[in-house]
Amino acid sequence: xxxxxxxxxxxxxxxxxxxxxxxxxxxxxxxxxxxxxxxxxxxxxxxxxxxxxxxxxxxxxxxxxx
Length: 66
Prior knowledge:
65% of the residues lie in helices and 0% in strands. It contains three helices and no strands. The chain is globular and about 35 Å long.
């Protein structure tokens, strides 16, 4: 299970990087999830995998270029 969590976090990081997540944001806020940078998405997925991986997949279109 730990390997799956790490692999998912790495995949989310690279996916968020290629979609341009957080490129227009100057600061990150917990409420403004669309403006999170790729590293933040990866950390949240790593820490709370069962909740944040589906949440990232659901919000991926909103994250694009935000």
